Prior knowledge:
The chain is mainly alpha-helical and about 140 residues long. The chain contains five helices and two strands, in the order ααββααα. Helices cover about 50% and strands about 5% of the residues.
Amino acid sequence: MKYYIAALKKYATFSGRARRSEYWYFVLFNFFASILAIFIDRILGTTFNITDLNGEPLFFPYGYIYFIYALFVLIPSLAVTVRRLHDVGKSGWFIFIALIPFVGAIWLLILFFTDSKYGPNQYGPNPKGIGNTDEIDQIGIHLAP
C-alpha cells in the first residue's frame, strides 16, 4: 500500500526512477481499486446503459465511479510507468512500443520485469542505492578525520 500512496504523491513526476516493487505494487492496488469501483457501480446502479443496434441492453460493468477513478489515476499510472522505464535505462517515450501488435506489449512487459540498471544512469541514481557511488571515490574514506 505504501508504494501506491507514494506513486499518488508523485502524481505527475515523470522524472527519476521507480523500482520494480513500486511499479508492481501500484499496478496491484490499482487493479483491486478498479474492481472495487466496478463493484460499487453495480451496487449503486450507476453503470452506463449501453444498447446494441436493436435496442437490446448490453452488459457493461463500468459506471460513473469507475470512470472518475480511472481519470484520477491516469496521470499517476503514466508517471510510474515512465519512471519504471527510466529505471531500466529506457526513455519514457518507449511506452509507445506497446502499439506494435502483440510483440510490443510482450517487450514492454519484459522491461517491467527487468531488474534495475546497476548504478546511476541519465535518469538519476539507482533507487535501490546499489552502485550509486564510484568505488574509486570510496578509497580512503574511512581514514578521513
